[in-house]
Amino acid sequence: MAISHTSHRQQLLLLCFLVHLIIPIQLCYSNNTYSNQTATPATISCRPDQASALLRLGHSFSSTNDSSCTLASWRAGTNCCGWEGVACTDGRVTTLDLGGCGLESAGFHPALFNLTSLRYLDLSENSFNESELPAVGFERLTELTHLNLSYSDFIGTIPDGIRRLNKLVYLDFSNWIYLVEGDNDYFLPLGEGRWPVIEPDIGSLVANLSNLKELHLGTVDLSGNGAAWCSAFANSTPQLQVLSLPNTNLNAPICGSLSRVLSLTKVNLKYNKVHGQIPESFADLPSLSVLRLAYNLLEGPFPMRIFQNKNLTAVDISYNFKVSGFLPNFSSDSIMTELLCSNTNFSGPILRSISNLKSLKSLGIASTNYHQELPFSIGELRSLTTLQVSGAGIVGEMPSWVANLTNLENLQFSNCGVSGQVPPFIGNLKKLSTLKFYACNFSGQVPPHLFNLTNLGVINFHSNSFIGTIELSSFFKLPNLYRLNLSNNKLSVVDGKYNSSWESIDNFDTLCLASCNISKLPDILRYMHSIEVLDLSNNHIHGTVPQWAWDNWIDLLILMNISHNQFSSSIRYGSVISANMFVIDISYNLFEGPIPIPGPQTQLFDCSNNQFSSIPFNFGSKLDSISLLMASENKLSGEIPPSLCEAAGLNLLDFSNNGLSGSIPFCLMEDMSGLNVLNLRGNQLHGRLPDSLNQDCAFGALDFSDNWIEGQLPRSLVACQDLEVFDIGNNHIDDTFPCWMSKLPKLQVLVLKSNKFVGNVGPSIFGDKNSCEFVKLRIFDLSSNNFSGLLQNNWFRTMKSMMTKAVNETLVMENQYDLLGQTYQFTAAITYKGSDVTFSKILRTIVVIDVSDNELYGAIPQSIGDLILLSAVNMSHNSLTGLIPSQLGMLHQLESLDLSSNYLSGEIPQALASLDFLSMLNLSYNKLEGRIPESPHFLTFSNLSFLGNIGLCGLEVSKACNMSPDMVLHQSNKPLPITG
């Protein structure tokens, strides 16, 4: 990654993409009991072998302009026990502390392992230039109690030798954390490859480390450990005090047994995918002082007993949107300095007793459904440096007591119900460096009082109702500003004049101006030589991108979004857009020519909805890091280049609605083990589908509809156990009904329409019924084929997902990817309410059976009435006979019913009149007779719903019904009218 670092303790780097941000940060505990050792003056001369080893080690290092240590004292012939960073006992080196020196080395020099008396080794914050951790050597350092290799640019697996160092008290392999902050500040890793050090078996790592008191593994990849990560500590580290595992790719619950480690004082699991509930037993840790669980996927109630721990100084559970709870009544003897519950599902009243937290420095509160204004008692917390407020339940205007918090450095109101203008007193909070008012209801002008805040580095005002016209240049007068986000308001942003005296413009790294009514590319960008994130999406910028912009961006930008504009012309053929961009979105413009090649760092590339005409043959060979590739709705022609199969990390490929021809490269389906979505809809592809899919197939959605594909469906698809959507509609498939696809346990959408399928639908009459149960199916489209035979009554009862709603499912069928919280919504093209409809997103409320335009015969199965979630049924253009089942009246969610062009007879069931949501009804061209059900709802259907049924009568067909004998008798008993 080509982010430049001036030092290893740099400020956070905030990036945004569609209001997305990226942050490399260092997480470690400041009160490090085991890292305060310093070299002491030498009183005994060091042994020659020790000096020799140190000299060889020293020659492997080189200093830079940023190095804080030069090792100038490391000279032959002098006492090595007096050298910089060295301490000895009896002439043997016991301490080597080069932490924070900023030295560089090509790799770990084996001479170090000759210092077998070492107890304290700190090589942190030096660069070993992505060299491998040595596989052997550490097992020789049997006296080590302290090992710190953090922030040193190592890669590879933690060496086995470290597992044997049973005297270790402190172990630190932490590394830089590159994170993405989504629309709701939800942090996620910046994609694969950002975990340079791997530990696949943490249980083995700590099995012999019974003396360990501190373990820091930030950004070490622990994903291979699964649920076993947690019990390892309960079983092996009884003295552990600090457990720091931020951004370790953990995707498992927190086990209750972790609380058996009663010595724990600090737990940090931030920035992971830890899910499930927070164990109640955390409240039983007697010495717990710091609990950091922010930015995970935790849910359920927060154990309120944890707040009763007298030693508690910091709790951070923010950005766990499904964690519920409320703030307790705080006592005046609390020593808490940090309480962050913002962007959770916390609710309930925020009590005045919060002012008892006299030591509080950071406060984050949330209220999702308990409507309240913030209590004035918060204004008594004069020591606050951070205040975060979130939740739709927080209403009213910004409280006036905020003006009393003059020590505030970070102020955030987000995703809340606070409204009105930003008050003028904001300009008096002189220490503010970060100001975030986003996704609330703020209105009025962008407050001019901001420009009094000369310490401001970050302004984020996205997604409010700010109005007016504002000059971009006015913000550059703030000398320390380096990030600005004004996206998605009602603003009009104009350029303004450039002033060479601006101090901030050279350090500006983030500019987000989506939906700001901008009509031309801001000229100020020409002078922003540090810009790394640029979002100009959803504006009215037209014309070509000037050459100076491409020249500036190719080496600087990490994240670019210029989508939904009117940029035109071609991008230089064969050129790489940027060597360093992680995210490129140029969709919804007028770019033409060959698709430009993203850089080797690019993980998301969206060039859909343009006029690109071809794909370079070597395109895929350049996609070293690509995860999401979208190029739909262009004018692409030619064949899909096989080089795409070289993009081994590809999760999503969408080339839909182009003019691609040729066959689908077999490797695209058979060799891409991580590919989750493959959408090739609406092209001119032909040939057969590959039929040697691997057992580790990861497909969740396959869409080949509207092509010229022939042959049979590949039986090896049964390997794709995560497949939810399969659409092969409008092709030339010649096959029988795929009962074998019922072995796909997650299949919800099956579209086989407009092909050449033949034979019975459902299981063979003589076959095993259990081999054809589609229990998850929601959309089932077999229309326009050559299916024949009976529809089996019992078979429809196996479609359980059409009967009962599943709990905890999202409304929309979609995939969510770690990268920027990016979602991809599945699509489907079906006939709905009599029209061909392409659903750009599939709602789970859309439940459809379409078997129209086939050769089916016999009765309509009564069991369809059990599928009470059905929203559309189409059985038209078959040879169905018998009565319309009255059980259809049980389908109270039904919006569309088409039984036309069959041989149905008898009366229309009166029960259909109770279907209040039914808006499309077609019973035409059958042999129906009798009275059309009388109801106000049925009167809304025209005679087109009943054509070709000469036996029907009623107002809809303008044919009076003959009265039955009972009706005649009833009318004859009426009293005669009295006349004059």
UniProtKB/TrEMBL annotation:
Q: Indicate where this protein resides in the cell.
A: Cell membrane
- InterPro entries named in the record: Leu-rich_rpt, Leu-rich_rpt_typical-subtyp, LRR_dom_sf, LRR_N_plant-typ, LRR_R13L4/SHOC2-like
* Disease resistance R13L4/SHOC-2-like LRR domain boundaries: 348-535
Give yes or no: UniProt keyword Glycoprotein: yes
Ranges for domain Leucine-rich repeat-containing N-terminal plant-type come to 48-89
- Membrane topology term: Single-pass membrane protein
Task: Tell me which positions the record assigns to the signal sequence.
Answer: 1-30
Which keywords does this chain's UniProt record carry? Cell membrane, Glycoprotein, Leucine-rich repeat, Membrane, Receptor, Repeat, Signal, Transmembrane, Transmembrane helix
The answer to keyword Protein biosynthesis applying to this record is: no
Task: Return the Gene3D superfamilies for the record.
Answer: Ribonuclease Inhibitor
| Primary location group | membrane
Gene Ontology CC terms, in alphabetical order: plasma membrane
Query: What does the sequence similarity comment in the record state about its family?
Result: Belongs to the RLP family.
Kindly provide the name given to this protein in its UniProt entry. Leucine-rich repeat-containing N-terminal plant-type domain-containing protein
Q: Which organism is it from?
A: Urochloa decumbens
